[in-house]
Amino acid sequence: MIDDTTILAAESVSYTDINADGIKELIVNNHEKDYKVNGIWAYTFPEDWMTGDFEKVTLTTGFKNKFSVSMTNMAPGFTYPFYP
Known about the structure:
Elements: E1 10-16, E2 25-32, E3 39-44, E4 55-61, E5 75-76
Antiparallel strand pairs: 1-2, 2-3, 2-5, 3-4
């Protein structure tokens, strides 16, 4: 278990180097109606990933959803790594 307090239900996970430093991070987002709890986070891997602590960095939060009668709108959706 890395984090069970703020992510709620993870929607997608990517393992990629987001800041081009040669070290991959775990990018996780949830998919929630409430803008107060939705977002995208990055986790750095500890040297000993079995017993060490994963450091969490908030990348962005607060995605507002457009109202819809026909379907439940949730955000932020899937995260996709960018490969230039």
